[in-house]
Design a protein that fits this description.
- The protein is of the alpha+beta class.
- It has 2 domains: about 40 residues; about 110 residues, Immunoglobulin-like (Sandwich), CATH 2.60.40.150.
- The chain is about 25% helix and about 50% strand.
- The chain has 1 helix and 8 strands.
- The strands form 2 sheets. Strands 1-2-3-6 form a 4-stranded antiparallel beta sheet, with no helix packed on it. It has a 4-stranded antiparallel beta sheet with strand order 5-4-7-8, with no helix packed on it.
- Strand 7 and strand 8 form a beta hairpin.
- The longest helix is centred in the first third of the chain and has 38 residues.
- It is elongated, with a radius of gyration of 27 Å.
């Protein structure tokens, strides 16, 4: 009788050890995949609009791994011959990191154009830096420095 109980305990002990090994292996695999999972993550950052007498912009920003994707529409509201465009930048604690023109509309009054840009956070993202947000500007190509309104 004692021999049977000991065999059962050993069998149960082996099963527990096998289950523990599977759990530990699963955790190790998941830990190795964490950077890849973060890279594929898409989370909303924000959505807003800017309106002036000469133009309007609507935009949405989505976190795309270690980057931010900004999709915007630029509306030209005035017949003045000035093109309107939307410019975006990522605001990190070290300052503004990459920026670029999302969409340019030079088709004239009453028209709109939609575009998107992926802003990858670059060298300014040193140790301890965090993304604070996205800055979006609606600008018009007028005489002298371009006129811009920031949101």
């Amino acid at each position: 009788m004692t021999k049977t109980i000991t065999s059962r305990k050993m069998a149960t002990s082996r099963k527990m050890a096998a289950r523990l090994a599977i759990v530990l292996l699963s955790v190790a695999i998941l830990a190795g995949l964490t950077p890849h999972a973060a890279e594929a993550h898409h989370a909303p950052v924000g959505r807003s609009s800017v309106t002036t007498t000469w133009g309007k912009a609507t935009f949405a920003a989505v976190r795309d791994g270690w980057a931010v994707r900004v999709k915007a529409t630029a509306y030209d509201l005035r017949r003045d011959g000035d093109a309107v465009y939307v410019k975006a930048s990522v605001d990190v604690t070290a300052g503004l990191d990459p920026d670029g023109v999302v969409v340019r509309n030079s088709a004239g009054a009453g028209t709109s154009r939609t575009g998107s840009i992926r802003l990858r956070v670059g060298d300014n993202m040193g140790s301890g830096q965090i993304i604070r947000g996205v800055k979006v500007k609606l600008c018009k190509s007028d005489w002298g420095p371009d006129t811009c309104v920031e949101k």
